[in-house]
Amino acid sequence: MSAKATTLKVSKHTDLTGTSTGYKVFAVIVLILVALFFLFPLYSIATGSFKPILEITSRTPVWFPQNPTLDRARHIAELLLDRFDAGEINSVWIIYTDMKNGLEAVVRQERILPMHREHFHAAAAAAAGDKAYEFVPSAGAVLDNAARSCLTGYIYSALVDSFCSEQSARMTAMNAADQNAEELLKDLSVQYNRARQAAITQEITEVSAGERAQRSKKEKEG
After folding, report:
1. Three-state DSSP class for 108?
2. DSSP string covering 53-103, please?
3. What is the pLDDT, as a whole number, of residue 197?
4. What's the number of CA atoms in the CB half-sphere (13 Å) around residue 192?
5. Do residues 83 and 89 lie in contact, with contact meaning Cβ atoms separated by under 8 Å?
6. R_g (Cα) of the chain, nearest Å
7. What is the pLDDT of residues 52-111, one digit of tens each?
8. What residues contact residue 152 under an 8 Å CB cut-off, 6+ apart?
9. The predicted structure's pLDDT at residue 120
10. What is the pTM of this model?
11. Which of 8, 84, 131, 199 has the fewest CB atoms within 10 Å, counting from its CB?
12. Are 97 and 165 in contact (CB under 8 A)?
């Protein structure tokens, strides 16, 4: 029995030693991976081979719909016009939410590029005939500036409309939630009052029953 016990002790000690060695190897591998993870970017930056996944420049339209501004709309318009002039895109459509009133919003889809004359020319003016105008410095420069301003204004209007629609929807949802909470509180108050009244009535009934029982006992004893 003692020999068998000695053998069991030796084998258990050997298993624990192997497990400890496995943990040490695993820890060393993890440390190497962590070191590579932090050292590789530093090496790439030092050698100049590091390339960011997304490089934000002054012409990249970084905007947030929670705070629409005319400057951000201008950046978006410039980016779209540059790509449209370069032939990268054929047309640009904008989809936004137009708030008709405080309770209703409509999703609209409009084409903003290329622009067409009928978008700006009224029917009455077309019937009256075109008049001769002088453009300074040139018609092309004036139209280019007007197109950029018109596109910027349209994009800014869409951003503001969408922002107002979102805020209106949030206010409507919060108002509905507040009304539901008030109704729930009223129902809970009624249930609480009923339960309290039932408990009070039960206590009064028990006290009255006890008092009648004591009176009957005294009458029997007397």
Report:
1. strand
2. SS---TTS----TTS--HHHHHHHHHHHHHHHHTTS-S-EEEEEEEE-SSS
3. 93
4. 6
5. yes
6. 40
7. 443 434 444 444 556 788 888 888 888 888 888 888 888 889 888 888 877 788 888 888
8. 70, 73, 74, 77
9. 60
10. 0.53
11. 131
12. yes
- How big is the CA angle at 80 (ends 77 and 84), to the nearest 5 degrees? 135
CA torsion through residues 16, 19, 24, 27, sign: negative
Q: What is the residue whose two structure tokens read 């978008």?
A: 119
Question: Under a CB-based contact definition with an 8 Å cutoff, are residues 99 and 161 in contact?
Answer: yes
Which two three-digit tokens encode residue 210?
Answer: 């006890």
d(CA 160, CA 67): 9
**Residue 36 pLDDT > 60:** yes
| Residues 78/59, Cβ–Cβ less than 8 Å | yes
Is pLDDT larger for residue 63 or for residue 34? 34
Q: How far is CA 56 from CA 51, 75, 92, in A?
A: 12, 13, 23
Which residue in 170, 177, 189, 162 sits closest to 72, CA to CA? 162
Q: pLDDT value at position 86?
A: 87
Is the model more confident about 47 or about 108? 108
Contact by Cβ (8 Å): 158, 94: yes
- Cα distance between residue 163 and residue 221, in whole Å: 86
pLDDT given for residue 195 in this prediction: 92
Q: What is the pLDDT of residue 174?
A: 92
Residues 118 and 130: beta-carbon distance below 8 Å:
no
Identity of the amino acid at 37: F
How far apart are the C-alpha atoms of 201 and 207, rounded to whole Å? 10
